[in-house]
Amino acid sequence: MPRQHRPLPSRRNTTRAMRNLDEHTITAEVLGRIGTKTDPRLRDILQSAIRHLHELAREVNLTEAEWLAGVRFLTRTGQMSTDVRQEMVLLSDTLGLSQLVVAQSHRRPPAATEQTVLGPFHVEGAPVRISHGTMLGDRSPGSPLFVSARVTNGAGIPLEGAHVDVWQADGEGLYDVQKPEWELGRAQLRAVFCTDEQGRVSFRSVMPTHYAIPTDGTVGEMMRATHRSPMRPAHVHFRIVHPGFDPLVTHVFAADDPYLDTDCVFGVLSTCLGTFIRREPGAAPDGSVVNVPFHTLDYTFILHESL
């Protein structure tokens, strides 16, 4: 018997809609292309991203030239990013996206210290130092700062053995990674400590100052184009980890800094204000004698127990 051939299905109806997509119907077609075996969470995120991006283009009537300018901007932002300068993170920070994601990922009771952005200058593998008596930034410009930090739970009970990762800019507003001689083995103004039985660590550092974020890249272009201040208020970064508690990434900001209400990365929160007290020359908290004015900071971090 001659071989039977099944008639091919008509492509006329199956391709008609695809071949006649317009600015209003294309979104549904793109969403429909996501396969049924796609990870559910990935599918949810992609579908939402596609809907919002398409709606943005329609809302502002995005032109080809504007779309291409955006592509080039993001491309250059990615190309600028390195292990010690993350321009993509900085862009996310200055658009408020980083703090938004952080806030909804680390909801805490009012008494707990609030979470803020990690920022673009954190470096893994900072040197581990003793809990008390370390001098950070011995080659860094700035007046002396003596920090005493305490880590507790919500009931005020001290947490021994918490890992406290510290990093900050110097008295000229620069992080060590921004300097030509940067290498991790010669890290300045960054270290990891472990809290003692009273939940404390203490160290000597330098008083930070407010500073401008790097403006020589794509983020700087965006800040100038939108007439925004690039300034950040003076602060010290902390990342605190202890078993059984939600890891805390936060800043301690100088409570009298003039840029608190215009922080360019939207990171200033009420539980993150610290009192940096100016002292006259004389005896310092570590028992040494300081011949110039110095500052002290005594701050308690309250961790939130993991569920």
Tell me the radius of gyration. 26 Å
User: Strand share of the residues?
Assistant: 15-25%
- CATH classification class of the largest domain: Mainly Beta
Distance between the termini: 72 Å
Helix content: 25-40%
The quaternary organization reads as single chain
Number of strands: 14
Largest sheet: 5 strands, mixed
The helix-and-strand class reads: alpha+beta
User: Secondary-structure element sequence?
Assistant: HHHHHHEEEEEEHEEEEEEEE
Cross-sheet strand order for the largest sheet? 1-5-2-14-11
How does CATH name the architecture of the largest domain?
A: Sandwich
Q: Name the CATH homologous superfamily of the largest domain.
A: Aromatic compound dioxygenase
Number of helices: 7
Number of domains: 2
What's the overall geometry? elongated
Q: Which regions are unreliable across 5 or more consecutive residues at pLDDT < 50?
A: 8-12
Predict the CATH topology of the largest domain: Protocatechuate 3,4-Dioxygenase, subunit A
Mean pLDDT: 92
